[in-house]
Amino acid sequence: MEYNQPNISVVIPLLNEAESLPELHAWIKRVMDANSFSYELWFIDDGSTDDSWKVIESLHKQDSNVKAIKFRRNYGKSGALNVGFEAAMGEVIITMDADLQDSPDEIPELYRMIKEESLDLVSGWKKKRYDPITKTIPTKLYNWATRKMSGIYLHDFNCGLKAYRHDVIKAIEVYGEMHRYIPVIAKWAGFKKIGEKIVQHQERKYGTTKFGIMRFINGPLDLLSISFVSKFGKKPMHLFGLIGTAMFIVGFFLAAYLGLEKLYYLSLKIKAPLVTDQPFFYIAMTTMIMGVQLFIGGFMGEMMSRNAPDRNLYLESKRLS
């Protein structure tokens, strides 16, 4: 039987958003029907403890385009997006949050930018936000730092409303807390045609935000991590081996200097201090040992350059398709 690829796959990770789901589904369906898009709508329930899954089951019975995956426990937004990307089959994949702060009315233009402008990825930019200042200021700082470190000049890396060409989501893997930096991961994977669109940001209508103060700590750590992985993930020897070799050479020449100094004093029959009494001896030994350890670490990292294949193991309890 021939498979008809849908125009659009909408992937929506969610956690305890039972109140917003019917309204969000109706809004997406209205937009899709108005534009005659063929589509599939994937809800990824990231271990909700409210009635979210019951609502999704009800929507699935009403609309065959609704599909869903439920996790046994909460794995985080990155894990939910990664599984959604694996399941999505559309020509263009749209991601958005389930809290109604992302507008489905943006979908047609995002789709057009991917198809007609041949972009790999389009990231939303919530230019006018309705978030408290405690959230907007750190967000601006992270976006500035990410632009400088990645060379990707987007204004809002963490915007949940994004569009991807099918090939992009099948070539990348999102894990840990890396959903904030998907454009960086995509660029690292070779997809460099990245665009941006100003999108409408709406005030939260139901529930409360799921992101706490820890994201202000995790954000810069994730940025450092993705920057390191993108540069040295496949070639750790280039970093650890280089630093280790340099440290070993410095320690070796320092130890050689102390040894030659000792021999020089002996040749002149001058009583020389014990080498082990000099602090430089211990600095030299420590530097050489650390250099060897770093070199070995780089060598081992080179042998294990591919990350563990089981880092994204999700215990799905239910699936609707």
Features:
eight-stranded mixed β-sheet, elongated, Spore Coat Polysaccharide Biosynthesis Protein SpsA, Chain A, 2 domains, 10 helices, alpha/beta, 321 residues
Strand order of the largest sheet: 7-5-6-4-1-2-3-8
CATH class of the largest domain: Alpha Beta
Report the total helices: 10
The arrangement of helices and strands along the chain is: EHEHEHEHEHEHHEHHHE
CA-to-CA gap between the ends? Answer: 17 Å
**Count of the domains:** 2
Shape: elongated
The share of residues in helices is 40-55%
| Class of secondary structure makeup | alpha/beta
Q: Point out poorly predicted stretches.
A: none
- Proper CATH architecture of the largest domain: Alpha-Beta Complex
Can you describe this structure in just a few lines?
The chain has 321 residues and is an alpha/beta fold. It has helices at residues 21-34, 52-62, 77-87, 107-116, 133-150, 166-171, 182-188, 214-232, 237-267, 279-303, and strands at residues 8-14, 39-45, 66-71, 92-95, 121-125, 162-165, 194-198, 316-320.
What topology emerges from the helices and strands here?
Layout: E1 8-14, H1 21-34, E2 39-45, H2 52-62, E3 66-71, H3 77-87, E4 92-95, H4 107-116, E5 121-125, H5 133-150, E6 162-165, H6 166-171, H7 182-188, E7 194-198, H8 214-232, H9 237-267, H10 279-303, E8 316-320
Parallel strand pairs: 1-2, 1-4, 2-3, 5-7
Antiparallel strand pairs: 3-8, 4-6, 5-6
Helix pairs in contact: 5-8, 9-10
Structure report:
The chain is α/β, with parallel strands linked by helices and 321 residues long. It folds into 2 domains: 237 residues, Spore Coat Polysaccharide Biosynthesis Protein SpsA, Chain A (Alpha-Beta Complex), CATH 3.90.550.10; 67 residues. Helices cover 47% and strands 13% of the residues. It contains 10 helices and 8 strands. An 8-stranded mixed β-sheet has the order 7-5-6-4-1-2-3-8, with helices on both faces. Helix 5 packs parallel to helix 8 and helix 9 packs antiparallel against helix 10. The radius of gyration is 27 Å and the shape is elongated. The model has no long low-confidence stretch (mean pLDDT 84).
